[in-house]
Structure prediction request, 97 residues.
Amino acid sequence: MDLAASVQVSTRGGSPLRWSLDSSKFYYTDGNGIETIDVKPGGPVLTSRRMLFGLPGDWRGRLDVMPNGEHAIMIRGGLIYSDIVVLQGALTPGHER
Prediction:
């Protein structure tokens, strides 16, 4: 692996979630949000990075996002009791960080 050809996309502690079905977008967590970035044949397009969903402070780190980025699910709560929450409708443009 050539680290010189690598591009860092997260800035606040990230975890990978999934690729879009056509591999043109990558979804990941960054801080308390689910973000996406466009990926072209030459690599990630940093100017396309945007937040899709803000996450509350009590999410436990288990997340998934649909390949089209329209919905996501998360586990919210503690070790004894938790809920599965469906996040609907990604943030509209203008709500990005």
Notes: The chain has a mean pLDDT of 83. Residues 3-88 form one domain. The chain has one domain: 3-88. The chain is about 0% helix and 50% strand.
